[in-house]
Amino acid sequence: MEQQGDKFVPVAVDPFSKFLLDLFALLWRLAAGFANGLAAGYISHLALDAVTPRSIPLLTSAGQRRVATAQRARCAKLRAGKK
C-alpha cells in the first residue's frame, strides 16, 4: 500500500486489480445505500402504521378492541336487518 497524506490507498498494479477494487467499492456503496433505505423504509412504515385505526398491535390493544367492537356492531345491524 502506498501512503497518500494520512490515508492508505491500495495501488492497483494491473487493470484486473483496478477493476476488482472499483467493483468492490461499488458493491460497498450499494450495500450502504440498501441498509439506509431499508432502515428508512421500515421507520416510515411504522410511522404510517401508527396512524391507522388498528395502530401497531404490539404497542396498543385499545385500537384493536375499538375496531373489533365496531365490526361486531356492524354485523349485528346487518343480522337485524335480514330478519
Indicate the topology.
Layout: E1 2-4, E2 7-9, H1 15-50, H2 62-82
Antiparallel strand pairs: 1-2
Main sheet properties: 2 strands, antiparallel
Q: What class do helices, strands and sheet pairing give?
A: mainly alpha
The portion of residues forming beta strands comes to 5-15%
Question: What's the number of structural domains?
Answer: 2
What is the rounded Rg? 28 Å
In whole angstroms, the N-to-C terminal distance is: 86 Å
**Tally of extended strands?**
2
Which series of helices and strands comes N to C? EEHH
Shape: rod-shaped
Spans of at least 5 consecutive residues whose pLDDT stays below 50 are: none
Spatial order of the strands forming the largest sheet = 1-2
